[in-house]
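FW: tagging you since you asked about this chain on Friday. Here's the raw sequence from the shared folder, copied in full. Didn't touch anything.
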Amino acid sequence: MKVRFGFTCRGTADLALEQYDVLLADLERLGFDSIWLPETMLTGSFDPIVGLTYAAARTERLKIGTHLVVPGRSPVRLARELAQLDRLSRGRLLVTAVLGLPDHDEVTAQAVVKSERGAMLEEVVEVMRLLWSGNSVDHQGAHYCLSNASLEPLPVQDPIEIWFGGQLPGALRR
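HL: got it, structure written out here
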């Protein structure tokens, strides 16, 4: 049986941004498997794309993971960011796609309709997987439309695993 240890950094609730470098060095030195940066819209969490890019550059073997709030993001931009981050980290990226906190202010900050978040998440993941295939993508969905879209470079992982997080029945169905 393989046992892995990861550390979730909640941002300024855990440490000052200026101490993030020390945390990364300590996690790598102590043999931790991964660093996780959860995303929230309004709390002191570190931006996961920025923070994980920094972690990829500062570490050699530490996997880099996020609980990423997907609804409200452009699927093309997100697919591109994650593909490049996966390449820069040499395939160490871990992604958990979440709806975001159910708090009214958090949903408002996402600029999405609360009842549409699940469908948006599913459509974004579908489009990203199509883009990561390396093919040209035409997509006419409920929330996003693409014509002749493609990405380069592609991620190292084929495919990037996307985990789903959540506690409600809809999340469990996904």
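FW: The beta strands are 6-8, 34-38, 63-69, 93-98, 137-140, 145-149, 162-164.
HL: agreed, and The helical segments are 20-29, 48-58, 75-88, 104-110, 117-132, 169-173.
FW: great, closing this out.
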